[in-house]
Amino acid sequence: MDCGSLNFTHSAMVLLCGKGKFLTPKVGPLNASFQKNAEHLRLSRHRGLGSLDSFQHSSIKIKLPLKYRSPSLNLCRSYPLVIRSELPQNADFPRYYSKKEKKPFPVPIVELRRAARERVKKMKGQPKRPAPPPKNGLLVKRLIPVAYDVFNARITLINNLKKLLKVVRVHACSGCNEIHVGPVGHPFRSCRGSNAGFRKGLHVWTNATVDDIVWEVEAYHLYDRLGKRIPHQERFSIPRIPAVVELCIQAGVNIPEFPTKRRRKPIIRTGRKEFIDADESELPDPVPEVPETPLLTEIPDSDIVAPSDEVSIAWLAEETIQAWEKMRGGASRLMKKYLVRVCGYCPEVHVGPSGHKAQNCGAHKHQQRNGQHGWQAAVLNDLIPPRYVWHVPDVNGPPLQRELRNFYGQAPAVVEICTQAGAVVPDEYKSTMRLDVGIPSDLREAELVV
């Protein structure tokens, strides 16, 4: 027998034996095929194991023996059935850092020093190479379209969220910065705002806006990305714009309201931190380039029209979540070339090779640092905070219960809004949303959970 195929159903255990005999509960069909020289049994998903989220998003491996007897060789061989899944079934929520804790470094200091020593040892005795863009003052041309996509994705996200807020209820606490997506606010006592002790941690829910959902971190706009650091005395004379917009400007987006210096020749280094601009007088006058992708603009609140039917709401939710993923994915690509700094003690973000000198850090023990920021490399969540909220399993069902808090999951506010509007949940958020966890109906049933 050169090749054979079996049609069996899925369950927690599948038993296969030789001569085509198999025993399994009848739950749903799953196609399996094997070859004579094959190492593993190949599965094609239909409605079998692929329909169970616990198999799709679990990190376990299931190995089952498969035996068949060849009439010609009269030989019995055993092939393991391996089911793999890289995504975890459930994941812990992002850790909450108090104001007294310092953010961890993305890469530990020990590893940074070790990599620096290896880099110096490797470059010893070799001629010095010219700095690549953007360190030499030029733009990375292949990332210019990415910068325009990130800028337009941010505008699309804001415009779509304004429309979705007309049909999806979002609550914001007036005492703290926590928000909740659902018909009613959650009953958890997690408020850390003013007078929270008198309310025993209960939230005071009000209507939320787009600014509560998309928490935009502001940064100083730099006319020259490689220029001198902003001193403390000029902190009020330099405009502040969203950090994502500043990153797009430095990556090649031209906005007339925020001019920036564009070099056409690499800079000439005269020292470690000193340089001079190359002579560009012999070059022809620059011609303003028309971008291939036009820049979008925000829609005023008075012109917002809510979607009319469920189909348009679901389509709008899908477009919104795609804009969210495009903005975060493009910003992550830009951050690999254009450096972004964040303070280890407060949410201050600076887009540039080195942080500014403004002494406006008011975090824990800022007096010991004279108000100066502790700059370190930023991660994507520092630039675009996801704003995690509690996931509501059933919008039309009963509200969240305080006693069953450990069974509920969390998701970014944008993802939760789009999910309740009818969008498909991306795979990367399913683990924290705990979609595979069975929620007890009451406290008595929850106490029986092992």
Summarize this entry quickly.
This protein is about 20% helix and about 15% strand.
Overview of this protein structure:
Helix 3 packs antiparallel against helix 6. The protein has 2 domains: 3-83, no CATH class; 142-262 and 296-433, no CATH class. The longest helix is centred in the C-terminal third of the chain and has 26 residues, at 310-335. It has a 3-stranded antiparallel β-sheet with strand order 1-4-5, with no helix packed on it. With 450 residues, it is α+β, with helices and mostly antiparallel strands. The chain has helices at residues 53-56, 109-123, 144-164, 210-213, 243-250, 310-335, 380-383, 413-421, 430-433, 443-447; strands at 3-9, 15-16, 22-23, 29-35, 42-44, 62-69, 76-83, 170-173, 179-181, 205-207, 218-220, 240-242, 268-269, 275-276, 340-343, 349-351, 375-377, 388-390, 410-412.
Task: Show the helix and strand layout.
Layout (H helix, E strand, L loop, with lengths): L2 E7 L5 E2 L5 E2 L5 E7 L6 E3 L8 H4 L5 E8 L6 E8 L25 H15 L20 H21 L5 E4 L5 E3 L23 E3 L2 H4 L4 E3 L19 E3 H8 L17 E2 L5 E2 L33 H26 L4 E4 L5 E3 L23 E3 L2 H4 L4 E3 L19 E3 H9 L8 H4 L9 H5 L3
Organism: Quercus lobata
Protein name: APO domain-containing protein
GO molecular function: RNA binding
> What would the principal axes of the Cα set say about the shape?
globular
Using only C-alpha atoms, the radius of gyration works out to: 28 Å
Unreliable residue runs? 1-76
Number of strands: 19
Strand order of the largest sheet: 1-4-5
Distance between the termini: 48 Å
Number of helices: 10
Organism: Quercus lobata (Valley oak)
Protein name: APO domain-containing protein
GO molecular function, one term: RNA binding
Pfam families: APO_RNA-bind
